[in-house]
# Entry
Amino acid sequence: MSETGKKIREFVISRFPLAKQGRLDDEQDLLQSGIIDSLGILEVVNYLSEEFSVVVSDEELLPENFSSISKLTSFTERKWQITGASD
Amino acid sequence: MEYLTHHLLEASASKDPSKEALVHGEQRLSYADLDALSTRLAHALIDAGLRRMDRVGIYLEKSVDQVISFLAVSKAGGVFVPINHLLFPEQVGHILQDCRPQAIVTSNAHLESCRQVLDDNADLGVVFTATESAVSLENKQVLNVKEILARENDEPVHTRAISNDLGAILYTSGSTGRPKGVMLSHANLIAGSRIASTYLNIHAADRIVSIVPFSFDYGLNQLLTGLEHGATVVLLNFHFPNEVVNCLIREKITGLAGVPSFWSLLAQPSSSLHRHEFPDLRYITNTGGAMPQPVLAKLRESLPTTDVVLMYGLTEAFRSTYLPPQELDRRPTSMGRAIPDTEIFVINEDGTLCEPGEVGELIHRGPTVSLGYWGNAEATNRVLRSNPLAPPELRDTERVCYSGDLVEMDEDGFLYFRGRRDSAIKSAGYRISATEIESVLSSIEHVREAAAIGIPDDVLGQAIVGIVVAQDGETLDPGEVLGFCASKMPRYMTPRRIEIVSDLPKTAHGKIDYQSLRSRITGAGVSPA
# Structure
């Protein structure tokens, strides 16, 4: 797994304690499982901005981008390629 | 004559049967549909043995089946108990033990996770599942809601219930102890609907979006005002703010209600709320805590043609005050004045009326004062008391609600919130008892004692901090403590961080000194976990 993926995974585990229960699969649905709720999304957005300088627009707030660790990771890496931002 | 909760639905259904009553995603129900489906479930409840005043727990996500269930229970003469779908077996178990429902309506997923607490509940005879496939439970009759709703048994149901009968129980937390069940009569529920729809001017053309849980009086009231006036109620579960914005546009929503953390989410700089116009959105309402002023300013900028109505209330007496939108510029920090048909007064420690500008306790008198807490006369008598201002001859004729909130009134009768008398935590619109969090923390291995406090937070109002002391010679890991909490409580109750300390400050009586604990935690400049 990429560095980005590892960081995101660590963040999710530290901020969303329900993720600690059992082994968190990178494909596991974080929204349906109740690990991340609507207020939690806000924390994820702030984290992506602080850690990776990735600015998330409202239109990008979609399950396709946010519902699992692997989706969050590829979304973040895709945003880098578009904007050239890096950490 | 409409005197029971479901009469609100029936009256609207007879006036305009084909009018759209309920929308959830692709599902659209007319008033006639909602009336017929709730009658079918009411028959099934009665056939399963439900009697007048029997409780029925409704433990479902926001859904059409959930609304049908409330109305069906009312039709069958029972008492509906909405259970927040976010709750875990620990909290659900408490509610079931406390109000001993005879039946529960739930989903297979909840049924699986709560199998043990359902099994343990001997009073619970019937389980209705809203999921297609069948499951079985030992010693319980399991019925399928989908099959029941497909049976065309539309004969009207007759109940001997009257408006003084208990209609619903809503579980809410105080500052200490487990959640208590606030008992609402049908008369309370209908008075709440009449009052709110008067000051919000609800009418048949309204399309109200429901986001606030029905286990909140405020959420339930939205549904009832909609049904009373033949309006359309749109149910929405969401994760992302743009789902709300899209729903407002797609469904031409006219009314939206939320709690402060919801508005913070919706008013984020990136939110698409700021890039659309909402000509249909007539009003928004806030309750469950004060709306932060910067959020209020942003909402007003993005919603220039929408009325903003700030409200205040507590489950024990439904809503108490609202700020008319035209007063917002003059008194942006006010919680408003009494709702219609309600008297609000402020009294000091001596039990006499406060002068304008003097801080005292808010007392609520009116038709929405609840019947008290289920099975807890002692707690009821603390909150609901005789009217201190009534002449002696009338003193025992009614009870008023002592809110526990400290407020002051200005010369014009507008109220301003000044604080709570006790240490209840208010986070994300929920009133949370420190005791409930502490009991989870204390159940962790190697924890000697524990406390929970709320500290100021921009989005949540208050964020919960758990403070634990390890047993002698043992060590605790904050991350593991958090993980345990998250497995036992919904996210809104789970502490945002854990502090490990060597001792807890105590009062002279040996109780936890929350005030000095709070200043120790907030003053020490500790970094977040």
